[in-house]
Amino acid sequence: MTNSLLYTLPVPISVRLPPRVEQKLAEYCVSHKVTRSEAVKQALERLLETGAEKSSPWELGADIFARHERVKPTEDIARHSKRLLRERARGKAK
């Protein structure tokens, strides 16, 4: 038996699932018309693909950060924080 043959044969594994996870898996399989084995294989493939491509915190939040970059403040909030807080307390703020 060669090493390449070892990697081409499916390997059976056994996993103990908590009842809550097993129930969700069963519901998923019924609604998507797939077997439990197929659902677990798909989930593991997705997990291993995304796990290999670790995103930085900046990449994970890029869409959120971009929204705030487009909106430019009309004034320096840090410099005028006391005045802005007073105005907000008095009801003058926007």
Topology of this structure?
Blueprint: H1 3-8, H2 19-32, H3 36-52, H4 57-60, H5 62-70, H6 81-90
Approximately how much helix is present in the residues? 55-70%
How many strands?
0
* Biggest β-sheet strands, sense, barrel: none
For the termini, the CA-CA separation is: 75 Å
Alpha-beta content class: mainly alpha
State the low-pLDDT regions, or none.
none
- Principal-axes geometry comes out as elongated
* Helix-strand pattern: HHHHHH
> What portion of the residues fall into strands of 2 or more residues?
under 5%
In DSSP terms, counting alpha (H) and pi (I) runs of 4 or more, how many helices? 6
> Could you tell me the mean pLDDT?
79
The Rg value, from CA coordinates, equals 26 Å
What does this structure look like?
The protein contains six helices and no strands. By secondary structure, the chain is mainly α. It is elongated and about 70 Å long. It starts with a helix and ends with a helix.
The gist of it:
It is built from 6 helices and no strands.
Keywords:
6 helices; elongated; 94 residues; mainly alpha
